[in-house]
Amino acid sequence: MWAHTKETQDKVTPQMALEYLKEGNARxxxxxxxxxxxxxxxxxxxxxxxxxxxVLSCIDSRTxxxxxxxxxxxxxxxxxxAGNVLNxxxxxxMEYACGVANSKIVVVLGHSKCGAVIGACSxxxxxxxxxxxxxxxxxxxxxxxxxxxxW
Length: 151
Ligand SMILES: [Zn+2]
Hints:
Layout: H1 6-11, H2 14-29, H3 38-44, E1 53-57, H4 65-68, E2 76-80, H5 88-100, E3 105-109, H6 115-121, H7 129-134, H8 137-149
The structure holds zinc ion (ZN).
């Protein structure tokens, strides 16, 4: 598989981008990786990159977007932070991906048993993690409130 060029990226629609990710995930789930020469892709992207997607995912070692979506070098912007929290820097990265570099889709990839969410639920505090986990707490409070209303 070749790295995307400006010409191939320009032809990708948001729906196509979603399909590329779904197809890649199906390959991943079936342990059928696309054949890629990553060193060749390094050379193909040395003068520029034309990723078709931006993926916000957790730093969890099991959630590498490139692996889960079976994508190569130059295919996706991979934005990673514990718990997928948003801040101005993450939003700026997404704005760059779509507004400047012409990516067609933004995906927020959550996962089960997220240590950041577990830490926020258990009121973990320590160092800079305290501030990061505090960004998750409003979602926990909303979910808890919603569940109380259903009782
Ligand atoms: Zn996580």
